[in-house]
Every structure is written in structure tokens, then in C-alpha cells.
Design goal:
The protein is mainly alpha-helical and 360 residues long. 60% of the residues lie in helices and 1% in strands. It has a two-stranded parallel ribbon with strand order 1-2. The protein is extended, with a radius of gyration of 68 Å.
Length: 360
């Protein structure tokens, strides 16, 4: 075997993790099964031309991940300075050039390009058609010419039935068409007669409507004439009454004013309208105060009587309850004494019986 021969048969590349060999058509693709540029954390997102917005959390992460240039050193033989103390909460250190002269930064790591090729998904082959297993036995039958039927002999009745049925259906269709034509002619005649009758009915209705409208107009005109005549008569009567009334008005106006009190004595008017009402109101207010005081006193006396009756009834009830309680206590005490006497008598009787037994 030469060094260029295969030691084993070619085989597919091993698939690690949970990656399947074929793509499942019913399941959605997992984001972890492929490399998508929109989901790759190594790809910069957003506008690459604008300045990056640095938040406090982003500055802390950058300061925590990015190594300090001074801690990496400038080369062999250089002394390292003491590290800067960590920033206080809420602030971030910033690197800046503090030397007198510019210096070349040599701590840039070596860069190189690398690429990778992911395995493409393979479409799952179609499932084969299901073919059920063959069961049972196959049987066949041999039919010789003339075993089933004789066409020339048996086709006559079939043709007779077909032709007869066709002729019968054609006759039925012809009769139906004639019947529909008769119905159509009858409907047209009926429509013409109905239209004539309808036009005559409409003419009669219009004539009756015109007569009714004319009668209503004549009745309305007569009512309006009567109303106008009545209004004219009322106006004439009012005019006559006004002339008769105003003829004697100038003479009796002063008499009427004198009788109604328009001409009065000012002193008498002031006494009757101002002095007397005030006097009467003062007297009535004082009499009302006396009456209210009397009513209040009567209510107080009635309330005192009611309270005295209530207190009397309560005192009688309490006396009765006290007497009943004392009687119950006396009865209980008497019962206890009788019970004690009975027990003492029973004890004495038992002692006497015991003594007689010992003597015997």
C-alpha cells in the first residue's frame, strides 16, 4: 500500500452536537444551526459613519475588556509604571499621551485573515410510496366467444326501447311547448283586459277624488265666510259698546277714583299702612313667644310624668324579681337542710343496724 492510497472507504464528515444530517421540513430552522450575519455577535451593527454613542455601561465593559497600553509594556528593558487605581463609581478612565515626545505604538498584535466553510443542509430524500404486501390468491375466469350474449339478437329490444323512449320524450316536449304557448296567449289576453279595467278604475278614482276635493274646498270656503262674518259682527258690536262706554267715562272717572281710594289723607294712610302693622306684628310675636314657652313647659311636665311612670314600673319589676330570687334561695336552702337531715337519719339508721348485727 502506498502513502497516497486511502486506508478506508470515503465517508461523510462527522456532524457534532445536535445538528441533523437532513433538514426537517416540518420544523423551523434553529438560529444556532447556521451562521447568519444579522445574528453574528462579531459583526458591527448600526451606522459605521457616525460616532459611536458611549453609555456608562458600554464604557465600563470596554475598560474591563481592553488591556491598558502601559501594562503591556513598550519592549525589553523598559520599566513599568504602577497601575492606575480603578475609577470610582460612575466614571471611566481614558487613555491619553502624557510623554513629551510622540512614541511609536508597537503593541499592536499580529493580524491575519481566516475563513471557514459551513456544511450546507442536505434535503431529505422523498419517502418511498407505500406498497401493501400481497395477500390471498389470484383467480381468473375464461370466457369463450358467445358465452355472455349475442349482440345481433339482443340489440333489437334495446334499440326499440331507446327509439321509443326518444320519440315519447320528443312528443312530451312538443306537447309542453304547445301548452306553454297557450298559457302565454291566455296571459297576454288577461293582461290586456286587466290593463283596460285598471285604466277605467283609475279614471273613476280620479273623478271621485276631484269631486271630493271640490266639495272640501266649497265647505272650507263656507266655514271661512262664516268666521269672517262673525268676526265682523264682533267688531261692530265692540265698536258700539266702546262708543257707549266712553261717552260717560269722563264724568264718572273722578267718582270711581274717589270710591277706590286714590284720593286719601296722607296722615291717615301712614298710620294705617305703617304704624298699625308694626304694632300688631310686635304684639303677635310676643304672644307667640309666651305661647311657645307655655307649650314647652307642658311638654316638659308630660315627659316628667312619663319618666316617673317608667321608673315606677321598673322599680316594681325589680322588687318582684328580688322577692322571687330570695324565695328561690330560701327554698333551695330548705331543700339542702332537708337533704342533710335525711342523710343524717339514714346514717344513724345504718349505724344502729350495724350495732345490732355485732351483738347477735
Amino acid at each position: 500500500m502506498s502513502s497516497y492510497d486511502y486506508a478506508s472507504e470515503p465517508q461523510a464528515a462527522p456532524v457534532g452536537g445536535k445538528k441533523k444530517k437532513y433538514r426537517d421540513e416540518n420544523e423551523e430552522a434553529d438560529a444556532s444551526d447556521h451562521l447568519n450575519l444579522m445574528q453574528d455577535p462579531r459583526v458591527k451593527r448600526g451606522n459605521t459613519y457616525a460616532a459611536e454613542v458611549m453609555t456608562s455601561s458600554t464604557k465600563k465593559d470596554n475598560a474591563r475588556k481592553k488591556p491598558s497600553r502601559r501594562s503591556m509594556g513598550r519592549g525589553p528593558g523598559t520599566t513599568r509604571r504602577s497601575s492606575t487605581p480603578p475609577p470610582v463609581e460612575g466614571r471611566v478612565h481614558s487613555d491619553m499621551q502624557t510623554e513629551e515626545f510622540l512614541e511609536e505604538l508597537t503593541d499592536r498584535p499580529v493580524e491575519f485573515d481566516a475563513g471557514t466553510q459551513t456544511l450546507a443542509f442536505m434535503d431529505r430524500p422523498k419517502s418511498p410510496l407505500f406498497v401493501p404486501a400481497k395477500i390471498g390468491q389470484d383467480m381468473d375466469t375464461q370466457i369463450m366467444p358467445g358465452d355472455l350474449f349475442n349482440f345481433d339478437l339482443e340489440v333489437d329490444p334495446i334499440l326499440e326501447v331507446l327509439v321509443g323512449k326518444t320519440i315519447h320524450v320528443a312528443m312530451l316536449e312538443l306537447m309542453q311547448e304547445e301548452e306553454l304557448e297557450g298559457i302565454r296567449l291566455q296571459q297576454e289576453e288577461f293582461e290586456s283586459i286587466r290593463n283596460v279595467e285598471l285604466s277605467e278604475v283609475q279614471r273613476l278614482e280620479a273623478e271621485a277624488r276631484r269631486k271630493a276635493d271640490e266639495r272640501d274646498r266649497r265647505v272650507a270656503q263656507e266655514k271661512q265666510r262664516q268666521v269672517d262674518r262673525k268676526a265682523l259682527e264682533e267688531k261692530v258690536a265692540a265698536r258700539a259698546f266702546a262708543n257707549q262706554y266712553l261717552s260717560s267715562l269722563h264724568e264718572g272717572v273722578f267718582d270711581d277714583l274717589q270710591e277706590e281710594g286714590f284720593f286719601f289723607d296722607p296722615v291717615r294712610k301712614e298710620v294705617e299702612d305703617i304704624f298699625m302693622p308694626d304694632l300688631l306684628s310686635t304684639i303677635s310675636s310676643r304672644s307667640n313667644a309666651y305661647g311657645a314657652a307655655r307649650v314647652m313647659m307642658d311638654e316638659l311636665i308630660a315627659g316628667a310624668r312619663v319618666l316617673s311612670r317608667v321608673f315606677g314600673a321598673d322599680s316594681q319589676r325589680l322588687r318582684k324579681e328580688l322577692a322571687d330570687r330570695l324565695a328561690a334561695e330560701a327554698a333551695a336552702k330548705k331543700a339542702e337542710e332537708e337533704e342533710a337531715a335525711r342523710l343524717a337519719a339514714e346514717a344513724a339508721a345504718a349505724a344502729d343496724a350495724a350495732g345490732e348485727g355485732e351483738e347477735e
